[in-house]
Backbone:
């Protein structure tokens, strides 16, 4: 589902996605997209512009979440300030891409999200595919007080549901699968955005992006347990999930 008030851009994006093998429904406004969803229409991924008349993209995302619609959302926008990216991620979007990026980048973002929804594996620190242990082969991966439901992308801490987005779940899953290992900012960024994609300001902009994810993940766990401290930070390097917890 593509929602953008720029007719030329929207139609071009929809046509490129169709050529790549996707079935696409496109809408020039948020209200029209909501009508489509309310009438039983669905989508595996929604690509939203931010600045639109009547209803902005962030307002549309909020309405979708209020209505209980959890489909992954990518913001594709001309806005470049990091404050917009942080607001999008905090509201539940899984990705934020500048319109100046090539269609190949957008296509990769969509494919990564769809692949992540299947949770068939995540990139390893060496750039390959991490081999899951015996527990990870099943539907449930349990480590200490943490339980991860691999098929549904749900997490529990001490028996209580942790409201993680799909992207946050993927990052936690990768940390847990490499418990005790020190994972760099770059590796963690590649888990959710794909190798070779840079965000933020300068070549190390991904660090701020990863810090935003980790800060939000920690807050969600600490909302349930003030003593949560399983994610350790190594300043200037990255993070790791403690072992034996």
Residues:
């Amino acid at each position: 589902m593509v929602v953008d008030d720029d007719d030329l851009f929207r139609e071009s994006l929809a046509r490129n996605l169709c050529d790549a093998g996707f079935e696409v429904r496109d809408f020039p406004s948020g209200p029209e997209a909501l009508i489509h969803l309310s009438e039983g229409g669905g989508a595996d991924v929604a690509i939203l512009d931010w600045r639109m008349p009547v209803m902005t993209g962030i307002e549309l995302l909020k309405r979708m979440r209020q209505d209980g619609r959890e489909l992954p959302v990518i913001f594709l926008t001309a806005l470049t300030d990091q404050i917009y990216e942080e607001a999008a991620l905090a509201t539940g979007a899984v990705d934020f891409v500048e319109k100046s990026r090539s269609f190949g980048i957008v296509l990769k973002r969509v494919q990564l999200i769809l692949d992540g929804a299947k949770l068939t594996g995540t990139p390893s620190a060496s750039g390959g595919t991490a081999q899951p242990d015996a527990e990870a082969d099943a539907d449930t991966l349990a480590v200490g007080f943490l339980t991860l439901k691999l098929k549904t992308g749900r997490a529990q801490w001490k028996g209580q549901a942790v409201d993680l987005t799909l992207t946050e779940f993927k990052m936690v899953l990768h940390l847990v699968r490499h418990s005790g290992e020190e994972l760099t900012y770059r590796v963690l960024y590649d888990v959710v955005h794909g190798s070779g994609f840079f965000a933020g300001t300068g070549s190390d902009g991904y660090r701020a992006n990863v810090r935003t994810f980790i800060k939000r993940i920690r807050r969600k766990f600490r909302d349930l347990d003030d003593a949560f401290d399983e994610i350790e930070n190594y300043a200037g390097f990255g993070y790791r999930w403690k072992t034996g917890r």
